[in-house]
Amino acid sequence: MAIVRLRSILLPIIAGLSLGLLIGTGCKSSSTDPNKDDSKIIGIVSSLPRTGSAKAQTDSIVNGIRMALEEVGNKVGDFTIEYEDLDDATASEGQWTPEREAANAKKAARDMNVMVYIGPYNSGAAKNSIPILNEANVLMISPAVTGPGFTKPGKGAPDEPGIYRKSGKINFTRVVPADDLQGPLAADWARSMGAKKVYVLDDAEVYGKGIATLFGEHAQKIGLQVLGQQSIDTKQGEFSGLMGEIKRANPDMIYFGGTSQTKAGQIVKDMIAAGLSGDKCFLIVPDGCYEKAFIQAAGADAFNSLKVYVTFGGVPPEQLTGKGKNFVDNYKKKYGGMPEGYAVYGYECGLVAIEAIKKAGKKDRNLIRESALSIKKFDGALGLWDFDENGDTTSTTMSGSIVKNGDFEFVKLLELKK
Asked: Are both 383 and 405 inside the same structural domain?
């Protein structure tokens, strides 16, 4: 009987405490200062691989975002901007994981102060976060995701991009051109450099396989002989057997759809070891390799033996003009070195976020999302551009570089042949 009475006394107390905890957890915002007026705080988060070999690239992207926000004193109108730098990578994987990207998206969606999500960096990661943030009506601005299916009907899987837009609204935007431009441009460039027979490799991921397929399709269309296309197993340590097979096919060049994190550096090493180098064969890789980590993985000396070309959705930092050049000059002054290629895209994402919040004039996710999509003639660090009806930038500037003397050296602007 004493036990029953004790339970009857304790249960309401425990229930009350539990309810209080639940209410406290459910209402908690990114601000832990009780004196802050949350109605005047707007949260911006970024989700990028901050662990692993992409860190140098994402460090410069985050620096770019911070520079854009610092230029306005972290204020837009009456609102104070609070920025949070989230990591979608793990130390064990050394790159982004679906679980971490989804967790970051859920965290942002739950925090009602968060109005803008800058990221992700990888196309594969975007598959995990766009649907979550679409339902929450959170504006996404990516500095680097280039998979066409996220925005362009008929350019990806049959259910894309509708599968990412369950709310019926568009919330994903990007300031970088998509791969339906970059892949074909790489094929045109290969032909202009004398290639006739090509072999296509990819890393079996959303970005890598997608851009490699686009390269291969356009290569055939313009008369190049595609000797084969294979997906590599990125868990393998090396690919000497595959390179022996490719050597017997006798290609003029190899295209690798992949990134610094998915063995691009090892591809370079194994091509050289197999004798696919010098004047016999060259390599083209996409913008996922446009980072110092790629050169470091292969070893700078490797590029003395093998000609390696890189396509990029824009122009290298040293080729930027106007506001872009101002950004590079300010970056060097602030951080003591040249920014990586995607730093200016992080900066542009920050500028777009500021413009969308300014145009909306209210702390309202839907209004900020609509304001971003309505941006026209945006005069940022990347020149004058608009968002089209799908959330894509209208900028089509692309460039090609060669790896030389341990760095990327600009070669030319790339234009798709009609």
From this structure: no
Determine the structural domain holding residue 129 and report its residue range. Answer: 38-177+321-387
| Integer-rounded Cα radius of gyration of the chain | 24
The alpha carbon of 97 is separated from its chain's Cα centroid by a whole number of angstroms, namely 14
**252/308 same-domain check:** yes
Q: Which of 221, 208, 400 is nearest to 319 (CA)?
A: 400
For residues 167 and 296, state if they share a domain. no
Confirm if 357 and 113 have CB atoms less than 8 A apart. no
Residue 31 included in any domain: no
User: Same domain, yes or no, for 69 and 209?
Assistant: no
Residues 267 and 325 reside in one and the same domain: no
pLDDT at residue 70 in the model: 98
pLDDT higher than 90, residue 381:
yes
Task: Classify each residue of 253-274 as buried b or exposed e, where b means 16 or more C-beta atoms within 10 Å of its C-beta.
Answer: bbbbbbbbbbbbbbbbbbbbeb
Say how many domains are in the chain.
2
Kindly write down the DSSP assignment for every residue of 314-362, as one continuous string. Answer: S--GGG--THHHHHHHHHHHHHSSPPPTTHHHHHHHHHHHHHHHHHH-S
User: Quick one: 298 and 326 in the same domain?
Assistant: no
In 175-224, the DSSP E strands lie at 197-202
Q: Residue 399 is encoded by which pair of tokens?
A: 């460039």
State how far Cα 61 lies from the chain centre: 10
Question: For 17, phi and psi rounded to 5 degrees?
Answer: -65, -45
CATH number at residue 142: 3.40.50.2300
Parallel, antiparallel, or unpaired: how do β-strands 398-404 and 407-414 relate? antiparallel
User: What pTM does this model have?
Assistant: 0.86
In the sheet that 197-202 helps form, which strands lie side by side, from edge to edge?
225-231, 197-202, 253-257, 282-285, 308-312, 398-404, 407-414
Same-domain pairing of 49 and 119: yes
User: Pseudo-torsion of CA 355, 357, 362, 367, nearest 10°?
Assistant: 90
Instruction: Rounding to the nearest 10 degrees, give the CA dihedral for residues 334, 336, 342, 348.
Output: 10
d(CA 59, CA 56): 5
List CB contacts of 106: < 8 A, sequence separation 6 or more.
132
**Under a CB-based contact definition with an 8 Å cutoff, are residues 186 and 215 in contact?**
yes
Res 345: pLDDT: 98
| β-sheet bridge partners, residue 414 | 398
Q: What is the mean pLDDT of the chain?
A: 91
25 assigned to some structural domain: no
